[in-house]
Amino acid sequence: MNVSHEISLLVEEIQRLGCKNDKGQTSVKFGVLFSDDRCANIFEALVGTLKAAKKQKIIDFQGELLLQGVHDNVDVVLLEE
């Protein structure tokens, strides 16, 4: 899969699993995204896809890298719907 296709799939999954925050942006906890069975089947490297999407300013999250367990409560925010 190419990166842009994986990012578009990531956007769909954030919309499916997330909810609107106080700014009207869709947000999901990293732990929810990481532990979701459907996401596990779609993404070979979820963290890499998240990093690429952040670099393109499609999503935002605190820090540079998200790790399971340590960052489960970090919000992944969709900047573009």
Automatic annotation (TrEMBL):
Superkingdom, taxonomy of origin: Eukaryota
Example of a GO biological process term: regulation of actin filament-based process
Domain Costars: start-end pairs: 1-79
InterPro entries per the UniProt record, alphabetical: Costars (IPR044302), Costars_dom (IPR027817), Costars_sf (IPR038095)
Pfam families documented for this protein: Costars (PF14705)
Family: Belongs to the costars family.
Descriptive protein name: Costars family protein ABRACL
